[in-house]
Design brief:
single chain, 96 residues, mainly alpha
Amino acid sequence: MQSIILLLVKVIELYSYVLFAAVIFSWLYQFNIVNASNRTVRTIGDILYKATEPALRPLRRFVPYIGGMDISPIVLLLLLWLASDMLLRYVLPNVP
């Protein structure tokens, strides 16, 4: 059972990296640093969007834009870190 919890923590950590990559990619795309007409760039952006948007969409209903900036990825990262920390501190020590 402990290995399942540790695997879940690693999945949360991996998703945090994917979310961070999606944020960096969106900045690169918005500032025209990457070529938007390139097929590979478009595919990477589409994969990152499809991986992160289902988790970000519900948050965007509750988290307002601040100064024209979307802070829902920051809120999601904080929630992921909180979930990971709670799993490691409270759930893992009580599992046989």
